[in-house]
């Protein structure tokens, strides 16, 4: 009996100590999207030749100041993977506790791939680049990585809707099922209107930040 009580107290102590770590990890993941977008917008406004109506934020990794966006990709990927670890802790034993974090981790890794394999120049950026874009090998990998990453994110939202609903956050669960539709619609419209892609990608990042913040404050029920 004494041994059982000791074990129970030890388990409770470990769980109590783990909660701050979980919240910190989720906070790191929640910061990732807003930070990425803020740095991207700031660069887009400051870089010569960049036009939000014609150029994707990924292209900011090109040119002399491109290292800033490359670091932005790497940092965002790292924060998202930390956030995925936090999700795994927060959802341990809950529905979606395995696949949700794993899919967010894939999304984070896609940012590292985007940093290693930059987008192609085109649409007048970097300054002096031709309007036409010729797809290179690294540009193709960049596109594939981004596609896989955002498909994983959309799937993650669908998975995370279940623990959100189980935790009583029904409005959040409904939104998590609708946001992927808007993200994918933005991607499909991107060929005709580049800002649609930026808006869809940004929405995905911001909603993931909101979900992580929500779970950091009120974890899902087991």
Q: What does this 3D model show about the protein?
A:
The structure is a single chain. α1 (2-46) packs antiparallel against α6 (194-217), α2 (66-90) packs antiparallel against α3 (99-116) and α4 (137-166) runs parallel beside α6 (194-217). The chain is elongated, with a radius of gyration of 20 Å. By secondary structure, the protein is mainly alpha-helical. The chain has one domain (21-217). It contains six helices and no strands. Helix content is 73%, strand content 0%. The chain has helices spanning 2-46, 66-90, 99-116, 137-166, 170-189, 194-217.
Mean pLDDT level: 89
In total, how many domains does the architecture comprise?
Answer: 1
The tally of beta strands, per DSSP, is 0
Structural class of the helix and strand makeup? mainly alpha
> What amount of the residues lies in strands?
under 5%
Tally of DSSP helical segments: 6
